[in-house]
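ARCHIVE CARD
SHELF: 3
SLOT: left
DATA:
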Amino acid sequence: MFYKYPQIKAINYFNNSLPWENSFALYDNDILLETYNALVSDELFIKEYGQTAPIGYKNITNGGIELGSDIELSVSAYYPYANNVNEISVKYWLDDMLLSEVTQSPYTINLAQDELAGKLELKVEMIVNGEIKQTQTINLMHN
């Protein structure tokens, strides 16, 4: 959940005491309380006011990405008319050579520095139902 929806950094749940059978109070339902505690225990959630998340996201623009070490790339891909997440895939191209097609969020690939040596351009395509819906080309800037 945390990598599929990286903008979610907190869950707030208000107990309520309802007089009917479908009460959603955490303290009345051991399974619900256990599930809630498991979800909020993840290190990606902010635990208290003023705390920051342990990972960060950097938007890559057409200005390029500076290289100097191995990199991990993840893409946030959403298309409003895709009914099933499996309909979306992301293709990564390096100087017009297909590196990988990833079909599961967060659509991540890892690239070693030696794979990037001498390469000029990284292209990312979002594919929905076999059709290219969005393309971004990123210049690679070598140190």
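SLOT: right
DATA:
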Amino acid sequence: MGTSWKELSLSAVLLLLCAGSVVGKELKCVCEDDPGFYRYSRGTHSGRVSRPSGPQGVTADNKRERVFGKPDGPANLVEPGAPGVRGAGGKKVRSSARRAGKKAHKLGVVGQIVGSRNNGLPAFTAVRSHDLAAMDGNIVITFDQTPTNVADDFDASSGVFVCQVSGVYYFSFGMRKAEGTDSAVLLLRNGRAVAMAHSTGRAGTEMLAQGAAIVLQAEDRVHTELRIGSVLDGSKNEPAIVFSGFLIQRK
């Protein structure tokens, strides 16, 4: 055992220099299947060490494998679950009952306008074929012909229109006064004058004409009236005394 400590130290240094051929490299994994060991080389020392203890971080490859599975293995995807139970439907804004009610209302309004005895809106034209004089007081003008009387709301014998459908109506009259008389005709609603036509001429005949739009409610009454002292000139061959009315717009 004649080897000195100097010779042993020199041998150890040579061994370390041969083993440490790669100098200055960082730690890196040498085996993907066994990432627990790393080769290090720093200075003149080299070797293998275990991975430091502690939880392993999620690498890019690990994250990809967790989502898509390993390259050679089946995908690790979670199958979608069954659809949930559908909630109960809300109440419709326009239910069938509401639609039926609106339809019935419309039919009711149309029924009021049309009526069971006609097929149109209230309208009439009445004609008087003989003279009329008001010597003792104002009198209601009556008629003996109704060429038009849709809805039968006008009574020729009384000369009165009775409203059955509320709305806006237009009434007009044209009546020829007798020659040499001072005559006036009024249009009245429920006994109150709405319009009047007046002539003071005595030399010849003239037509007294007037018209007005009137808002009526159900059961309102409209008629024409001859003022006292007036005389109307009727004729069987000429419609010289005429009263008309019709519905413009219902309410």
